[in-house]
Design goal:
It is a single chain. With 331 residues, the protein is an alpha+beta fold. It has nine helices and 13 strands. It has helices at 3-10, 88-98, 124-140, 146-154, 210-220, 227-244, 247-266, 277-291, 315-321, and strands at residues 23-35, 40-42, 47-48, 52-69, 75-78, 81-83, 107-114, 168-171, 184-186, 194-199, 297-300, 306-311, 326-329. The strands form three sheets. Strands 1, 4, 5, 6, 7, 8 and 9 form a seven-stranded mixed beta sheet that branches. The chain has a four-stranded antiparallel beta sheet with strand order 11-12-10-13. A two-stranded antiparallel sheet has the order 2-3. A hairpin with a 2-residue loop joins strand 5 (75-78) and strand 6. The radius of gyration is 20 Å and the shape is globular. The two termini are 38 Å apart. The model has no long low-confidence stretch (mean pLDDT 95). The protein binds (3R)-3-hydroxy-3-methyl-5-(phosphonooxy)pentanoic acid (PMV). (3R)-3-hydroxy-3-methyl-5-(phosphonooxy)pentanoic acid (PMV) is lined by residues 33, 36-37, 52, 123, 125, 157-159, 210-211, 301-302. (3R)-3-hydroxy-3-methyl-5-(phosphonooxy)pentanoic acid is lined by residues 33, 36-37, 52, 123, 125, 157-159, 210-211, 301-302.
Length: 331
């Protein structure tokens, strides 16, 4: 199936035919996976092999303004700088926008501002694609449900499906080939004392995209076979830990889920290693602090940076040990 088939399933007519306004400004938060999405059962529609679970960071994400313009081409402005249309970021965005204007071809100026580094394993694409969908739906008054918006954002980046809600969000694997049952939804549980700290160790853009890394892992890692079973187990334990507010159980499962994901990458051919020397030093510090009684855990995505998980009552001690940490308390 093609992405355009999904657009035809959701919309009766050209989605960008009738603008309701001339510009729209929106914000979409980023989300960090506690139980990771790693591996696509459909590369085109970004359909996952497994379900996943994330936490939304309320104040981190992407601000996007989309203007309708009377110009022959789109304009992409990232952090107040015009980005050439040939730039891979512009290309990815324009291809995504093209899905929604098969006949009408309106042109847009898209202004993007993020308070997380781009493509450094900090889920910038999740909040980015969710914000593009929120901007379009506002501009063209689509009147769709959040479930449908989640499906549309997934076509841009898998993890974007989870960026429409605060708190804990699960993204259903689904079984249908068209992916209409693979959308995210919020969990009812809340945990205001839970904190997540962003530990930026290297802001550079990663050399291997998560798309390429996932594909290589699925195709070449002998460990990938074990991954879906691991996720099923971890997902169940995490939901139980959230319901019981069992922080050590949650933290230990989140950390080992991330390490299992990285184990599938390390055993790919050629190997993929997002763990840099600074990442390893920080991991060892977390383990050391934990041995001395501090309940502190980490998770890592497709980049060298870490996210630390801890409780509000330990925030001062954690920050004293990691002075550059940016702490976010859940809502
Ligand atoms: O949505 P993508 O293609 O950026 O992939 C995200 C992959 C991970 O961040 C490693 C895991 C996840 O569930 O977000």
């Amino acid at each position: 199936m093609k992405k355009s088939d999904i657009i035809s399933l959701i919309f009766q007519e050209d989605p960008c035919k009738k603008p309701a306004k001339l510009s729209s400004s929106v914000f979409a938060p980023t989300n960090i996976a506690l139980c990771k999405y790693w591996g696509k059962r459909d590369e085109v529609l970004n359909l996952p092999y497994t379900q996943s679970l994330s936490i939304t960071l309320p104040k981190y994400g992407t601000w996007t303004t989309i203007h309708l313009i009377e110009k022959p081409t789109d304009q992409v402005i990232l952090e107040e700088k015009i980005l050439p249309l040939e730039h891979p970021f512009s290309q990815r965005l324009i291809h995504f926008l093209d899905l929604f204007r098969p006949l009408s071809r309106p042109r847009f100026r898209i202004e993007i501002h993020m308070n997380i580094p781009l493509a450094a394993g900090l889920a910038s694409s999740a909040s980015g694609f969710a914000s593009f969908i929120l901007g379009l739906t506002d501009l063209f008054a689509w009147g769709l449900s959040l479930k449908e918006l989640s499906i549309l954002a997934r076509l841009g980046s898998g993890s974007a499906a989870r960026s429409f809600w605060q708190g804990f969000v699960k993204w259903n694997r689904g079984v249908r080939p068209d992916g209409m049952d693979s959308f995210a939804e919020p969990l009812t549980v809340t945990w205001p004392e839970l904190c997540l700290g962003i530990l930026i160790l290297n802001k550079e853009q990663k050399k291997i995209s998560s798309r390429e890394a996932m594909q290589r892992t699925v195709l070449t890692s002998p460990f990938y076979k074990a991954w879906p079973h691991q996720v099923e187990k971890d997902f169940g334990i995490m939901v139980k830990a959230l319901e019981e507010k069992n922080f050590p159980l949650l933290g230990a499962t989140v950390e080992s889920n991330a390490l299992a994901m990285h184990a599938t990458m390390l055993t790919s051919h050629p190997p993929i290693c997002y763990i840099e020397p600074k990442t390893l030093v920080a991991m060892q510090k977390v383990w050391e602090l934990r041995l001395h009684g501090l309940p502190l855990f980490f998770t890592q995505d497709a980049g060298p940076n870490l996210k630390l998980l801890f409780l509000k009552q330990n925030q001062k001690e954690v920050e004293a040990n990691f002075p550059t940490l940016k702490s976010v308390q859940m809502e």
